[in-house]
Amino acid sequence: MNGIAGRMPKFLRRADPAVVTAFACILLLLFLGSLYSRSFLSPEYLLQQLKVASFLGVIATGMMLVILLGQIDLSVPWSVATGAMMASAAAAYGPVGVALAIPFGILCGVAIGIVNGIGVAYLRIPSMIITLATNAVAQGLMVVYTGGFSPQDSATPAMRYLATGFAIPAVPNAVIIWALIGAAMVFALTRTGFGRAVYGIGNRERAAYLSGIDTRRVVMVAFAVSGGLSAFGGVLLAGYASKAAQSMGDAYLLPSIAAVVLGGTSILGGRGSYLGTVAGVILITLLQSILSVMQMPEAGRQIIYGTVIVAMLLLYGRAPASRG
Amino acid sequence: MKDWRYWLAEQRGTLLALGIFVAMFAIYSANHPAGFTANVVQTAANKGVLLAFVAMAQTLVVITAGIDLSVGMIFTLTNCLASWLVIGTGLETAFGVVAVLGTGLVCGAINGAIVIYGRLQPIVATIATGAVYFGLALLLRPFPGGSVNEDLADALTGRLFGVVPASLVALVVVVAIVWVPFSRSVLGRAAYAAGSSETAAYMSGVPIRRGKFVAYALAGLLAAIGGLFLTFFTYTGDAAYASGNAYTLFSIAAVVLGGVSLFGGKGSALGAIFGALAFRTIGDLLFVFDLDPLWQPLFQGVILLIAVSLGAFALFRVRNRLEWFL
Fold first, then answer.
1. Structural domains for chain B
2. What is the Cα B45 distance to its own chain's centre?
3. Cα torsion for B137, B139, B140, B142, to the nearest 10°?
4. Is residue A61 helix, strand or coil?
5. What burial class does residue A61 get, using C-beta atoms within 10 Å of its C-beta: 0-12 exposed, 13-18 middle, 19+ buried?
6. Cα B293–B295–B296 angle (5° rounding)?
7. Which comes out higher in pLDDT, residue B314 or A307?
8. How far apart are CA B132 and CA B260, in angstroms?
9. Contacts with B283 from chain A: Cβ below 8 Å
10. Could you read off the pLDDT of B293-303 as tens digits, one per residue?
11. Which of A3, A214, B51, B160 has the CA that lies 20 to 30 A from B212?
12. Residue B165, H or E segment
């Protein structure tokens, strides 16, 4: 934590106003939380929050990639659940199944993502529609698979280790995984042709196409990555709770979109930084945590949550007024 | 071209949806154990009408090239509200109905205000407001329960003259007093124009903001009518997240089946209604063929996937590859 805090001013100077606002809101939430309870600023609590945030962080990373293209992935809920359920299901097939559980879960998510990608990139179906449809199909498949009940398979030891273990003392594995995935995403977005293409397509797909980028392949890869990361988030969640559940992904759709958008990534695509998404994820997680520490019932949480997101978007997520 | 050919070209989506519905319903009632009786029609109508109202609501927003992902949550919220208010003497019940419809109108207006005057993307804005509406619904009904004026409920869900399902009559009445005036008014034209090409509409001085705002507000109202009918059918209020989400999803499926373009500016609520009835009938086909109900979500999902993929056929008409990118 100290390392990040020490370097923050340097980031602040370079970052855009939305990212600064998001970090300011995090500090504000921490301040409000510390007024409510002293333990809010303890390292244990903050690490625990970071661990919870890393599940959302992994999912939001994929969402960010898709949003940068100017698209959206609404198949997150059942990609998460499919990843979790399929990984747990594979564990029931002997030692080979246990070994392949995590890749298999992720692969199922990638498959969902590829269907999304084909629909968006090659069939030119609006992303919000095709992803809603694949979400429904994934749900249907899982309902048939589980027979409508909560699945009985449980997570493998490897999944539990990834989600709850400590490879480095005092740093939860989930946080390390998020850091690795985040670093890979930052590298891909800022240092590779793929990243340039993503920003280019987000700004104007027509121009990107005319400058020789295979825009359709880039879009498809982005959706596949998003599906895979959602499923990986599901695998981690299954490891955390030691089993998969029917509606485990429902709680991740709005937060993942909100985290990306609150972090200053334009919902229209082409603009945004990963640092903003990190800020958005931590912001959302802290907000959820404070609401649950205050023992706010589910109803109040939903209302505050939706209101805060609309309010923050109205502050800095508005589309330009110019027209005509 | 002759007039009737223009009319045919304009109504192609609606007529196609009607055709699909008639075919599906024929298969459905032919294989139903009870056959084509007033009872079967009434049950089917009652289930279909709920989705038809929500699909009409979705249509109004989709016409403006937007989308309302909170429509199912407004439906759930008004269902919970109706289970508190639509009860008691005639006057109290009337007040309750007005309050429920007013709530829906306000919810829709809030969506519209955020999207149009707040300039947020409809998709994010309505997911967020949907969370708020669901929270309010949960506040009203933490557990399923409540009751409704049963005389009114039975009157609106029963049969007129022993044959015609009353819910269908209600649907026709709503179409006549909400959709027909709207689509023929200046504001309705503005909503279509805004969906078709916002820049062109703006340049021509069309009141696009007001048109879009009214479309969002009326969408809330129509979702509330749906919520009211849900209360009449079930006699209870239930803040079920899954059911609200399912209605949002199905409304989009119905809109697509009904020939309403998701890019805006094309289609009619009548098409969406036939789309909704057809979608419901297809979903129920599983039951008459005695398949395991477990397969229903998958079946509906696949239908949705196929329905949205049909739009891809327009690609064959594209002459210049740059037209891929809108």
1. 3-324 (1.10.3470)
2. 14
3. 100
4. helix
5. buried
6. 70
7. A307
8. 28
9. none
10. 788 888 888 88
11. B51
12. strand B164-165
- φ, ψ of residue B159 to 5 degrees: the values are -125, 145
pLDDT at A176: 92
Q: Contacts of residue B325 in chain A, CB cutoff 8 Å?
A: 205-206, 209
- Give the closest residue to B109 by CA, choosing from B95, B125, B94: B125
Identify any residues that bridge with B164 across adjacent strands, giving them in sequence order.
B160
CB–CB of A306 and B129 under 8 A? Answer: yes
For residue B182, how far is the Cα from the chain centroid?
Answer: 16
Which tokens go with A17? 């106003």
Number of C-alpha atoms within 13 angstroms, CB side, residue B205?
0
**Interface contact A313-B125, CB threshold 8 A:** yes
**In the block, which residue shows the tokens 């009157």?**
B155
pLDDT average, residue stretch A7-23: 68
Per the document, the length of chain A is 324
Using an 8 Å Cβ cutoff, are A44 and A204 in contact?
no
Judge if ipTM > 0.90: no
How far apart are alpha carbons A229 and A76 in whole angstroms?
Answer: 9
B268-303: burial string, b at 16+ Cβ within 10 Å, e else: bbbbbbbbbbbbbbbbbbbebeeeeebebbbbbbbb
User: Measured between alpha carbons, how far is A81 from A88 in angstroms, rounded to an integer?
Assistant: 11
- CATH for the stretch A28-316: 1.10.3470
* Backbone torsions φ then ψ of A126, nearest 5 degrees: -55, 135
Of A205, A206, A305, the CB nearest to B131: A305
The angle formed by the CA atoms of residues A96, A101 and A103, to the nearest 5 degrees, is: 110
Angle at which helices A253-262 and A43-68 cross, to 10°: 80
Q: What is the mean pLDDT of chain A?
A: 86
Q: What's the pLDDT at A324?
A: 39
Instruction: Place A14 in a pLDDT band, splitting at 50, 70 and 90.
Output: low
Task: Give how far the C-alpha of residue A273 lies from the chain's centroid of Cα atoms, to the nearest Å.
Answer: 14
Instruction: State both tokens at B199.
Output: 């820049």
H-only helix segments in B86-179 = 90-112, 122-140, 150-157, 166-174
Give me the helix-helix angle, A76-90 and A253-262, nearest 10°: 120
**Any CB–CB contact under 8 A between A148 and chain B?**
yes
Token readout for A201 is 């397509």
Beta strands in A105-212 (DSSP E): none
Neighbours of B16 (CB within 10 A): 17
Q: Which tokens in the block code for residue A143?
A: 């309902």
Which 8-state DSSP code applies to residue B159? Answer: E
What pLDDT sits at residue B306? 85
Structural contact between residues A125 and A119, judged by C-beta atoms closer than 8 angstroms: yes
Considering only A132-146, B182-196, B278-292, which range has the smallest mean pLDDT?
A: B278-292
Cβ contact A323–B295 (<8 Å): no
Cα(B47)–Cα(B168) distance, integer angstroms: 10
Looking at chain B from residue 284 to 303, which residues have their Cβ under 8 Å from any Cβ of chain A? 294-302
